[in-house]
Amino acid sequence: MRFIDECTLDVEAGDGGNGAIAFRREKFVPLGGPAGGDGGRGGDVIFVADPGLNTLYDLYYTRKVVANPGGPGENKDRFGRGGTDTLVRLPLGTIMFDRDSGDKIGELTQAEQQLVIARGGRGGRGNIHFATPVDRAPHKAEAGMPGERRKLRLELKSMADVGLLGFPNVGKSTLISSVSRAKPKIADYPFTTLEPHLGVVTVGDSRGGTGRHFVIADIPGLIPGASEGHGLGIRFLRHIERTRVLLHLVTLNDEPDRDPIQDYQALRRELDAYNSELTHRGEIVALSKADLPEVAEAYPELKARFAEIDIDLRLVSSATHEGLDELMQHLAREVFD
Predict the structure, then answer these.
(1) Residue 90 contacts residue 49 (beta carbons within 8 Å)
(2) pTM listed for this prediction
């Protein structure tokens, strides 16, 4: 299934049913009074947060959601049937904007949270409401009110505690698959990760009920200029805005003009250009691929260089799990403490 994190959608709540014009027809009541019931209320369009979804793919092709109208009023003072509400299930983290004004309408941040996005129209009154001493048999009733119409833009921001950042091929996908049950596709070429992957990390004894869980999001590889639309980064920078902690992965690269500390600083500049608040968020920096001899040999010097800018560089390997347990424990403290 394709990852879609932005789409447009038109929603139409159900129209209210028309009120009825009817009269009593009982035996021995030749001039019976009004007996037309009210129309039923139109159905609402309701958005529901579903933690089992992580893409707007289905709505990308739906384009329009319409709720059921209310039924018309009936004779013998009977009200029309109310229109059935239409429930639309969306991923956690979905934000709704009015497409015309750009105003934010609401967002879904908790599992099974419901938001009435368009309300159904009120049913029209039947002629039982219009009898007067002068007109005891009114031929008058109200039409149902139209349901609300909205033109929306939906935007998805992943609900994660930790945002995993790094240049392409630093080992982010391998790390998230090593510390969680997430199984992203992994290959050795730039931008192999084309969508954010969420993994649930358990720290402590989950069987004994003492474990703690947090969600880590593998954000697709950023490059310089991502905040201006270069590469894939601009599509996914929004997914780190809800995170509490940022985990930067760096590693050695064969390119002559690449350096781990320069890579880290380049990503920091992209974060600042996109949203300066992100640069004040808690962060941890780790050197990946410690199982490679050249990385292990370069670590002491790199650690000293990062220390000059007040960063405690960690050393980890997703292949051998070296340093991963300690790293996850540190992240858990940052998230929960």
Answers:
(1) yes
(2) 0.73
